[in-house]
Amino acid sequence: MFWDFFLFVIIGPLIAFFIYYLTEDRKRADKYRAERDRCRLIF
């Protein structure tokens, strides 16, 4: 019982933060790719 609660409290936020970080990283990469494509169109 205690260990289930402990795992839920410790692992839950870690997994949520990891998923959030991955999605933010992908968004940042997409934005960077769009900027690079726009610069390529200009030159």
TrEMBL record:
Keyword terms, alphabetized: Membrane, Transmembrane, Transmembrane helix
TM annotation in the entry: 6-23
Protein name per the record: Uncharacterized protein
Species in which this protein is naturally found: hydrothermal vent metagenome
